[in-house]
Amino acid sequence: MATSSAIPHVLSENVREAVANCNVLVVGAGGIGCEILKNLALSGFQNIEIIDLDTIDVSNLNRQFLFRKEHVAYHDSITTVEYGVNFYKNFNLVLNALDNRIARNHVNRMCLAADIPLIESGTSGYTGQVELIKKGLTQCYECQPKPPQRSFPGCTIRNTPSEPIHCIVWAKHLFNQLFGEDDPDQDVSPDTADPELAADAGKLALSEQNNSDGDVQRKSTNLWAKEIDYNPEKLFNKFFQDDIKYLLSMENLWKKRKPPNPLAWAEASSHEGDSNMIIENNSKTEDMQVWSLSKCSKVFASSISVLKAELSNKNFLVWDKDDKPGMDFVTACANIRAHIFSIEQKSRFEIKSIAGNIVPAIATTNAIVAGLAVLHAFRVLGEELEKCHTTYVRQKSSSAKTVLMTESVLIKANPNCYVCSEKPSVNVSVNVDSMTVKEFETEVLKKNLNMIAPDAMLDGKNLVVISSEEGETEINNNKKLSEIGIIDGSILKVDDFLQNYELTVYITNYVPKDITEPQFIVHGNTENLRPIEEMNGGGKQDTNTKVEVVEPQSSVDDPQEGSSVKRRKLNPAEEEDDDLIMLEDDDD
Amino acid sequence: MGEKELSSIETELYDRQIRLWGIESQEKLRAANVLLIGIRGLGSEIAKDILLSGINSLIILDNGTVTKEEQLVNFLLTPDSLGKNIAKSVLAKAQALNPLVKLTADSDSIESKDEDYFKQFTIVISTKLSTDEIIKISAWCRNSNVKFISGDVFGMFGYTVSDFQDHEYYEDRVKLPKKRRHDEKIPKAEAVTVKVQARIKYPDLSTVIKRSKTGKMKKCRNIYYYLMLVLLEFRNRHKRDPFYTKRQEDLVTLKTIWADISKDYEVDSTMLTDEIFGLVFGEVVPICSIVGGIVVQEAIKAVSGKEVPINNVFLLNPLTYYGKEETIGIV
């Protein structure tokens, strides 16, 4: 058989046979996925299945070499229901080549449930990682909690921005307020509940405002924008002049901060100091240079008119970094707000990185990681799972000589992991008198604990409180937890049939002292379930109502943060002796 | 389209990598002319990665003929290429990887090229060359300040050797501000990025890969350096690499060469085991993928002058997949 000789001759007979006969599943056909598929095919694998949930975009093309320009925007989606545990059981081995944490969590749970070895891989810039995940043998993808995505208190975004990113988050929220789906967490107007405001000053400002133009202030931004037919001048004056004036009236905020300067449309569009800017109509300059204030206001107006037209035949728009008018709008608004608050302004290119949460990716690292992933596959097929030690691709530095680094042992599972341990359980501290059942389902079970279709039963009472079946428990949605009997000391048995995953949730009643405290806390049984600080850290750990920087729907180029590069100390193999300690290349 | 300026098509296509190494590096790549010698298993991986990086031009030089074995491990070959020149046979698929790069095939032999030929390139990348050829060509490149890197894959083993001559480079280092107490009133100092410049003087490759018989060479602690020397010596003698159909006789030859080399360098001959020698047959595709990625990443560093390059040998451990830099030779 001609094709069988593609199987490397250096492999042992049993591995060569397994390569020819096994069924492998590759999840994800992006940069790493393409490389993995090529390596599998050229190594003599015969039965390969692929699932992918990505849209191919031009900026992905130079790494996804299996696709060409004519494939752009070809969309292949998977419904998770079709790919249940039984689907995964068809395979000897699953290789992950995903770019976001949510999908990785899901495949992790499916492979644990199906008891199929999973080779997990990820890259970020020059670094990458490949690791084996096997139930009962290694840690799972969720054994070490990942640091939360960087988030900011609502009042920093709405009242007192101090960094460019605060203005960018605000600009994205403004986009959603004007054109997107209604989300009360994304309010852009001044926040009078700022804990920094001494009660008096805030209330005073609020009452004054209500007497004058307070009406406009309180009305839904979206409705008001429609009423004025998205008149750019009126919109501009509201967000950049009136709202700022209102913020100035909250005097306490500015006692130790530089106060913002309200900006009127007329002033901005003819802003002086712009005349000596060279305006070149060149994509590079357009993208790389910081726009002048008058350019920002021009783009503000022009992008609004395009977006308004786009909105005319839709219910709402979804912001996407690769959608030009949306990206232009956010660039303009973020920079105008930055100017008002004397914050550094950024180029469209830089703002796109931050707003789109883009993780740089290169073909070389993808190729290296994909090579390692298939070497791991050989070991799994040779039943040498004990030898499948996690391997890291590292950036060469003047102090680190090791580019490819391998652990000397398998990384054991966290015995208290709420996903892969024998009887998974978590403690959830929550205000049972204020959180609704729906909020509990969405915020705690789905967003925090990564479930997809949870069913929850109140232990001891055999009462189903949340059901994944439509029409069964909707009646509970708006009830507070305590109203349906979930109180301090309650135990919930939660089951996600899609993930074949059961979790016991112990409820503790907890009342946040003030709004700077989190709404709820999820914690394991022991302390080691706390995130280990990452080098490029999750930023400051502010609490209060979290404002997510990453939009959950922007899955196309989500950070490939799933690769847990640097997420723990390594256990270097014995052979390596000289540069082990310098793992975290800290130069001073 | 200007020679230096990136077009909007390019900035969009290369967006994710520009976000890593910056527009300046991308412009240097955009101006780079690259020669790739050898388009077999490893060569095909190098071609892919270097084409995707967005260089100006690539010449693929190989006078070999497409064999059945080659078709199995080279994704740039089509089924109808059997018996044809290999450099010409990869053109169509290679060009499709990136239509913006000026790509040509050269079916001449490496012996037919004189010193002048190499002057037109920014960097020369070679695979499958003998020790003498590597030394000759890298010396020519040295005379004209053309960067040079060579790599090979033998089964599960692979390595790269580079001569970037007197190489100046910079890296961006992020300096984090000293931690302050929790005081919101003091504005937080932002991390600053500083450009750190440095230079490396690379040794002449004749002092790196040539077998020393004097016994005065500095010993290398990495045993796979000697495996590289053994395999190059095998190639020099037999004008081919170890092949699985001749496994038994090739193993005998390899061990004989190793016995000599271990004596010359006074290293313990039990360090290279039968298990290791059993792993050096054929070009294993995932290994090509890894070594190709390393070669091209180093080539990109050489061209862009950004990031710390490997100085000057990279050795991939075939048992553990450790991949390490070794600095070998005399500057």
Automatic annotation (TrEMBL), chain A:
Q: What keywords appear on the UniProt entry?
A: ATP-binding, Metal-binding, Nucleotide-binding, Ubl conjugation pathway, Zinc
* Active site annotation, chain numbering: 155 (glycyl thioester intermediate)
Spell out the Acidic residues composition-biased ranges: 573-588
Q: In which pathway does it act?
A: Protein modification; protein sumoylation
- Cellular component terms (Gene Ontology): cytoplasm; SUMO activating enzyme complex
Could you tell me which residues belong to the region Disordered? 531-588
- Domain Ubiquitin-activating enzyme SCCH, by residue range, is 282-352
GO BP terms: protein sumoylation
The segment(s) forming the THIF-type NAD/FAD binding fold domain are 10-72, 73-418
A Pfam cross-reference name: ThiF
GO molecular function annotations of the record = ATP binding; metal ion binding; SUMO activating enzyme activity
Q: Which residues bind Zn(2+)?
A: 140, 143, 417, 420
> Which Gene3D superfamilies does the UniProt record give?
NAD(P)-binding Rossmann-like Domain (3.40.50.720), Ubiquitin activating enzymes (Uba3). Chain: B, domain 2 (1.10.10.520), Ubiquitin-like 2 activating enzyme e1b. Chain: B, domain 3 (3.10.290.20)
Q: Where does the secretion signal sit in this chain?
A: none
What InterPro entries would the database entry show?
A: ThiF/MoeB/HesA, ThiF_NAD_FAD-bd, UAE_UbL_dom, Ub_act_enz_dom_a_sf, Uba2, UBA_E1_SCCH, Ubiquitin-activating_enz, UBQ-activ_enz_E1_Cys_AS
- Per UniProt, ATP binds at 28-33, 52, 60-63, 77-78, 99-104
Keyword ATP-binding among record annotations: yes
Q: Which superkingdom heads the taxonomic lineage of this protein's source?
A: Eukaryota
Membership in a protein family: Belongs to the ubiquitin-activating E1 family.
The name this protein carries in UniProt is: SUMO-activating enzyme subunit
What organism is listed for this UniProt entry?
A: Popillia japonica (Japanese beetle)
Q: Recall the taxonomic lineage recorded for the source organism.
A: Eukaryota, Metazoa, Ecdysozoa, Arthropoda, Hexapoda
From TrEMBL, chain B:
One of its GO biological process terms is:
protein sumoylation
What UniProt keywords are attached to this protein's entry? Answer: Nucleus, Ubl conjugation pathway
Q: Where is the THIF-type NAD/FAD binding fold domain?
A: 14-316
The UniProt GO MF terms for this protein read: SUMO activating enzyme activity
Matching entries from InterPro entries are given as:
ThiF/MoeB/HesA, ThiF_NAD_FAD-bd, Ubiquitin-activating_enz, UBQ/SUMO-activ_enz_E1-like
Tell me yes or no: is Membrane among this UniProt entry's keywords.
Answer: no
Question: Where would you find this protein in the cell?
Answer: Nucleus
KW Nucleus (keyword) present = yes
> Can you supply one Gene Ontology CC term for this chain's record?
cytoplasm
Give the primary localization class: nucleus
Identify the SUPFAM superfamilies for this entry. Answer: Activating enzymes of the ubiquitin-like proteins (SSF69572)
Q: In which pathway does it act?
A: Protein modification; protein sumoylation
The entry's family comment says: Belongs to the ubiquitin-activating E1 family.
Q: How does it assemble?
A: Heterodimer of SAE1 and UBA2/SAE2. The heterodimer corresponds to the two domains that are encoded on a single polypeptide chain in ubiquitin-activating enzyme E1. Interacts with UBE2I.
Protein name per its UniProtKB record? SUMO-activating enzyme subunit 1
